[in-house]
Amino acid sequence: MKIIHQTGFSRDELEAYRLVVYRNVLDSAHSVLVCMRKLRMDCASLHNAALADQILAYRMSVIKASSTSYLQSTLRKARKGSRRALRGGGELIVDPDFEADDEDKEGLDENEALYGDEKKGEDVEDEVMKEVWFDPEIAEAIDQVWKDLTFQKVLGEHARDFYLMDSAAYFFTEILRIGKPGYIPNETDILRARKKTFGISEERFTLGTMSIHMVDVGGQRSERKKWIHCFESVSCIIFCTALSEYDQVLLEEKSQNRMTESLVLFESVINSRWFLGTSFVLFLNKIDVFKEKLPKVPLEAYYPEYTGGADVKKATKYVLWRFLRANRARLMVYPHITQATDTQNIRLVFGIVKDSIIRNALKHSGVL
Predict the structure, then answer these.
(1) pLDDT at residue number 368
(2) 193 contacts 27 by C-beta, under 8 angstroms
């Protein structure tokens, strides 16, 4: 929405996503390599095996300094290979082996706390500059290892055995650019990145002649209790689910299928007493990933009653049927097939969503 209906991302906002992208690519590499070890599968070459060990042992550094000039100076030292903790004039470079603080750890699982922070007991000034350091040598190692035959085999044949974000292959492909000093994420990186939603965030924008107030809520289990009762008077609910997640599991609970969890959530929301009379827009997202995955990973392996094989249209209709069947309240549901990384597709879909909102408003006013 910021890209389509506002002015896009400012430089500061782009830079703020740097840590998110770093985490995404490092989490993804760690997840695949950990799976390889559990399956007792080794890299195809001894050189790549050594690089894999380096990647698994790597933790990102957070560099803090009380002035921009000192921060730039310490970054130059880090780029030359000097990443040990230094102190001078009350300023601190943080060693990558130090643990993350409570604020940064909030909401992260054990695979996501992949960076260091300040040593306990150290006095750090309140006003500090902070920079995240991602070693270019690790970026080069990831670029080499992800091309390894064994790594590719795990991606192709064992992706269902562990959680891996859909954009992992994209970030692996772009890792050398991402690993360059001074990297700033672009809009495609941001659209591909996975950033957990904590609490409630809001955006206001204009859609034609309409003023839209969009509220984004956390989808994780721990977040739902914070928002489910807050939106009794909303005009429209947009429920997003990923078609491609039929073979994936939750981060929060490894035994729970992600699509099944999404169906349960959709059923609880659409039949909730808080949303009587609200229209629903259902986004069946990531159709591009779904098309690519379906021939390789049969949908019927997870939903045996499906009999359409690798036919994308039949598979999409089946998933839609599963969601619409949960609508016991018989509310208006407007389904759309989407690809969130395609801004043209989303622009077109939101034009249709606008018409749905107007139609629902007219209905409630008695005009229709």
Answers:
(1) 53
(2) no
Any residues with CB less than 8 A from the CB of 355 and at least 6 apart, and which? none
| Paired tokens of 33 | 């390599």
Instruction: Report yes or no: 156 and 297 within 8 Å, Cβ to Cβ.
Output: no
Instruction: Identify whether the C-beta of residue 367 lies closer than 8 Å to the C-beta of residue 310.
Output: no
In this structure, the chain runs to a length of 368
132 forms bridges with which residues in the sheet?
62
263: Cβ contacts below 8 Å, ≥ 6 apart: 322, 323, 326
Residue 244 vs residues 132, 156, 248: alpha-carbon distances, Å: 32, 14, 8
Contacts of residue 231, defined as CB under 8 A and 6 or more positions apart, other chains included, come to 215, 237, 274, 275
Q: If we measure between CA atoms, which residue out of 343, 288, 14, 25 comes closest to residue 170?
A: 25
The model's pLDDT over 318-354, given as tens digits with 9 standing for 90+, comes to 999 999 999 999 988 989 898 877 767 777 777 767 7
What is the C-alpha separation between 154 and 323, in angstroms, rounded?
31
Of residues 193, 200, 199, 194, the one with CA closest to residue 214: 200
Residue that is written with structure tokens 């995240």 in the block? 132
Strands (E), the chain: 61-65, 87-88, 91-92, 129-133, 200-207, 210-217, 236-242, 279-285, 333-337
Other C-beta atoms within 10 Å of 160: how many?
Answer: 15
